[in-house]
Amino acid sequence: EHFIEVETDKGKELILSSLNKAIEDLNTSKFKGVQVHRSYWVCDQAIKQLTKHEGRQIVELISGEQIPVSRSFIRQVRAHINNQR
């Protein structure tokens, strides 16, 4: 286990957990989302769009933050976002 940073509209908090365990817990709750990178999971409600920036895939959040999408997750992310719309 490691510390993971959880960011919401109410702020940030460090939690002792593994990202995989946190994702597992989130997927059984009311929060749905997708892992976009080995270091990032994003809630569906926070996603504005999937876009490209300087040749790389980026998930743009409603907050304006840009999260990188790794090549190994791009198909999963595209399919997930297309199913949400």
Structure, explained:
- The protein is of the alpha+beta class and 85 residues long.
- It is built from 2 helices and 7 strands, in the order ββαβββββα.
- It has helices at 19-27, 74-84, and strands at residues 2-8, 11-17, 33-37, 40-43, 47-53, 56-61, 66-68.
- The strands form 3 sheets. A 3-stranded antiparallel β-sheet has the order 5-6-7, with helices on one face.
- A hairpin with a 4-residue loop joins strand 6 and strand 7 (66-68).
- The radius of gyration is 13 Å and the shape is globular.
Low-confidence stretches: none
* Biggest beta sheet attributes: 3 strands, antiparallel
Q: Name the helicity range.
A: 10-25%
Q: Approximately how much beta-strand content do the residues carry?
A: over 45%
**Derived structural class:** alpha+beta
Count of individual helical segments? 2
Strand order of the largest sheet: 5-6-7
Quote the average pLDDT: 91
Order of helices and strands: EEHEEEEEH
Radius of gyration: 13 Å
Number of strands: 7
Principal-axis shape equals globular
Distance between the termini: 34 Å
